[in-house]
Amino acid sequence: MADISQLQDFPTRTPVTRDYFQNWNIKVVNAEEIACDNYISPNRRDFYKILFIREGSGLFSLGMNSYHIDGNTILFLHPNEIISWRSISSSLVGHYCLFKKRYVEEYPLLKLTMEKHQLFSDTSRSVIRLQPDSVEVINSLYMQMHEQAGKGGALVEEAIAAYLQLIIIESVKTADFPGPDGVSDEYGHIHHFFQLLEAEASQINQQRPMRIKTVKEFADSLDLSPNYLNALLKKHTGQNVSTHIKNRLLEESKALLLQTDWPLHEIGISMGFAEHPNFTQFFKKNLGITPSEFRKSYAVPA
After folding, report:
1. Nearest to residue 66, comparing CAs of 58, 74, 76?
2. Using CB atoms within 10 A as the burial measure, which of 13, 101, 235, 254 is most buried?
3. Domains of the chain (ranges plus CATH)?
4. Which residue numbers delimit the HTH araC/xylS-type domain (predicted)?
């Protein structure tokens, strides 16, 4: 099997959009309308994803496991998992649905179905090879979800929650859980870097600021040389270590600005900036606006 780590052989690298702070609960998307690019999603997301692939092939990695996907497959992806996709075919035929954690909390029956079948929480059950009859049923359910989403209305989210339950149940009726393949040492190092970066960023608070912030600190924690770690990240993601650290700090900063009422200087300290002007300068240099302006731009009018 081809090595999942050889992402540099393909011309495009599109990161998964990290829009967990944006105001939506659920999206239903026709995969044919989205470019079939390669990507790695290194940071946590705030949404679950159910990806139904009717036609098309690629190499998919979930944590430290990789799978060869060749149509008739459905993937159940937890927000916290590190994933990547390398396209083999030129297009994908199928659908996917993204839904926020808060959406699951609003519909107890959906939450109960997810917990019962453990397709998101147990990665050994997250990839399912579908039988032909189930492929047709699931495709029909997705088409009905598209129709509901197009109509809109007060009950559209409740209706789609019911369809999601039916998709989960249909998937497990005759489920074939393929065994994973191993990943290369290089991809293993990349996975451990993103795992460490996420562990650091996800624990940030006012009492525990970001502790590891430099290439050397991350490399030392992984028992690698800084130059080697930089080369690996550049080779497989198109970006060096510093850029990934910077982007993660920016995303966490944006989330704290929008999801908390912490004073700006406390957010800056949490990000590892002892002086507030340094945080403001970092934020504006990379996003073009100050933290205060960013927070105001998303404020809901009173």
Report:
1. 58
2. 254
3. 7-173 (2.60.120.280), 185-297 (1.10.10.60)
4. 191-297
Helix (H), strand (E) at residue 106: helix 101-106
Q: How far apart are CA 46 and CA 77, in angstroms?
A: 11
Q: Which residues pair with 300 in a beta bridge?
A: none
Q: What are the mean pLDDT values of the chain's consecutive 10-residue runs (302 residues total)? A: 31 34 80 67 74 90 83 92 79 92 94 96 94 96 94 90 97 90 78 83 78 89 93 84 89 84 90 90 94 84 50
pLDDT of residue 58: 85
Residues 88-125 as b or e (16 or more Cβ within 10 Å = b): eeeebbbbbbbbbeebbeebeebbebbeebebbeebeb
Whether 45 contacts 20, CB under 8 Å: yes
Structure tokens at 139: 């495709």
Contacts of 109 (CB under 8 A, 6+ apart): 161, 162, 165
Please name which of 32, 79, 40 lies closest in space to residue 56, comparing C-alpha atoms: 32
E strand or H helix at 194: helix 185-202
Whole-angstrom CA distances from 206 to 210, 271, 293 are 10, 9, 21
C-alpha–C-alpha distance, residues 75 and 58, integer Å: 13
Instruction: Give bridge partners of residue 41 from the DSSP assignment.
Output: 83
Hey, what long-range contacts does 251-260 have (CB within 8 A, 24 or more apart)?
251/18, 251/43, 251/201, 252/201, 252/204, 253/279, 253/283, 253/291, 254/21, 254/294, 255/20, 255/21, 256/204, 257/291, 257/294, 257/295, 257/298, 258/21, 258/295, 258/298, 259/21
SS3 10: coil
